[in-house]
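Notes to self after the call with IL:
- keep both proteins in one doc
- input above output, always
- annotate only the second one for now

Protein 1:
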Amino acid sequence: MGDRDYGLDVKTVDRIAEEVKVVRGLGVEICIVIGGGNIFRGVSAAAHGMHRAVADNIGMLATVMNSIAFQSSLERIGVGTRVMSAIHMPNVCEPYIQRRAMRHLDKGRVVICAAGSGNPYFTTDTAAILRALETNCDSLIKATKVDGVYDSDPVKNSNAQFLEKLSYDEVIGKDIKVMDHTAITLAKENNIPIIVFSLKEKGNLEKVLLGTGKCSLIV
C-alpha cells in the first residue's frame, strides 16, 4: 500500500521485491505469505455486519491479487517465483500442494502462498505459521510497520517499551497484539521462532537475516 490509503503502490511492491532478490542471492530459501488488508479486511467488514465467513473469503481473494502483483515484480527482476493458492483457481495460479511447494523451493524459486489457509476464521498469521511448518522453514519472519514488538502500541503510546526477546507465553499472557493467539500457540507447539521487524526501512530484511537489523525474537 505504501503511503496510499488503499490498494497497491507499485514502487513499494518493486522495492520489497528487490529486497527479496538480495536475500535470495544469499542462498536463503524463501516462502512468502501475503496478506490482503490493503484491499479488504475481513475482520473489519464482519464488525460492520457482514458474515465473518463471507468477509474472510473476500479477504483471502484479496491476498491472491497481492500475490500475483508481487510475483510480477519479482519476475521482472529475474527471480523465479510461483504463486500457490489455498483456494483452487488454476487459470490464475497453482493450487497449494505441500510437496510441490517444497520442490519449487529446491529449485531455487520463491514460493508465494496465497489465500491464507483457505479457511475463514483463520488469520493470515496463522496461515503463515502453518506454511512455515509445512515447508520446514527455520523461522517465521513477520514484516510489519514497526521495528519489533512493544509492550503497547508505539504509535499511540510514546513511552511504549521495546521488547527484544520474549516467549510465546508472554505474548499470550500479556495479550501483546503482534499475532493472534492461534498463530502463537501453533508456533509454540512446534517450536518455530518468530522474528518481527519493520519492512518500511529499506534493506532491513537483509540486515535482520544477517543479525545486524533491529527486530524482536519470540521463542
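Protein 2 (the one to annotate):
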Amino acid sequence: MPTIAGSTILDRASIILQDTTNIRWPEDELLKWLNDGQREIVLRKPDSYAKSTSMVLTASETKQSLPSDAIQLIDIVRNLGTGVTPGRAISRTERYILDGQRPNWNTETGSSTVKHYMFDERNPKVFYVYPPQPTTPSYIEIVYSASPADLATSASTITLDDIYASALLDYVLYRAYSKDADIAPSAPQRAIGHYQAFTQSVTGKEAAESAYNPNMPKPSENPGSHRG
C-alpha cells in the first residue's frame, strides 16, 4: 500500500529546481505533472496499478465489459458464485478455437459456471466468457490494470506503490525543465535526462520482476542444465 504523500515528491522536485517557494513552478502545476506521471507509468507498465476484484457478469451474454476505471484485462482467476464463494478455475482460450469447434457457442444454453475466457488486446476493455451467462448472472474474480486516481491535493498519498516515487520525481522534473526549454539553454538537455531516467526506472523494474519471477525456472531448476 502506498504511503508517500505527493508533497514529498513535489518538495524534492522544488529543491532540485531551486524553486522552494514555487515562484517559477507553482505547486498546483507540479501536482498536475505528478498525476500525468502516474498515468504514464501505468501506460508503460499496466501491472503497476493492478486491481483484483469480484465482478458480476452481464446476464444472458458472452460479451463482458471491464469496470469503468479499467485500462485492460490482466487475468481472470476463478468463479465466485454469488460474489464470495470460491469456485472452479477459469482458463484462457482463443476465440478462433471455439469459433471453429462450436460456431454457435455464443447462443448455447447459459451456465452460471464459467469455464473459459477470451481476450483480444486490440479491444482491451472487453472480454468474452464461455458458456454464456444465464438470466441470473454470477460473479468471477478478475485482475485488471486500472487508471490511477488523481491526487486532489499534494497532501494526498500517491496512488501507485511507493517504489515508483523516484520515477515520478524524474517525470515531474522532465515536465518542469520542458517548460523552460525556450528560455534556459540547458533546460532541454536536463528534460531529456530526466525523461530517460524515468523510462529506465520503469523498464528496469520490469526487467527485475522478470528475472526474479517465481513462475520462471531458475538455471538450477532446468533439467537440461544437469549432467549425470
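Annotation: Residues 17 and 24 are 9 Å apart (CA to CA). The chain has two domains: 6-46+150-207, 48-146.
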